[in-house]
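Onboarding guide, step 5: your first structure request.
Type a short instruction followed by the sequence, for example:

Predict the 3D structure of this protein.
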Amino acid sequence: MTFTNRAFTLMELLVVIAVISVLVALLLPVYLTVRELARKATCIANLKQLSKAWMIYAQDYNGWTPGGAYARFSGPGDGKRYTPLWVLLPYLRTEQIFICPTRLGWDFSTTNPQLDTHRPRQGSYASNYQVMEVPEVMIDRPAELIVFCDSYNPWQDCYANCHGCTGGCSSYIWDRIGRGYYQGDTSKPTAWHNEGINLCFADGHIKWLNLGNIFYRNWVRFLPESDPHYYRPITQDW
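The system replies with structure tokens like these:
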């Protein structure tokens, strides 16, 4: 008995390639979705650790939360600018916790020693100025007030009644591009987790919210319910 080697025909090869292409097209979105879910879970874990560190810091400093923004909180005479993230570093394992695995929010890294003034140099989370460098007892609605969240900006220093801002607290959510002191780039939303962001609240719980479901009352302390901004979504002003 004799055997002959039979090669694939061109048509057969094309059919195999077409089948593989269809399988890749079907499986790739699933893979990307699963990967983003894993990254989102890591981001939530980061915020949980930041929340615990923020609370422990307050316990260690007689109920006072850490300083709140680059312009306001700085080391003694060293010329550097800090966010509360840097102050919380001793309570954390690594600076990597400052970075969301889905997106690097802001980067001040530089090889120029004269410009190397920001700490941390990189991060993905902004801190709410309203709940920083204040006694915990002055945080009136801990279950509603945000402490940290995903952001292209490392700090939030803009209130609901700040007329110099574009959209009130929008500078906390959008990337600043220098079109004005508080104006951000509304073409570049922070909503990198399926059209929403992860947020850490003052009572310690972590939550994902669509940007349209975040209100001014989530940012501002002692905002009365009678204030027109109380029920106003921050996206309404963008």
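Each response can be followed by summary notes, for example: The chain has two helices and eleven strands.
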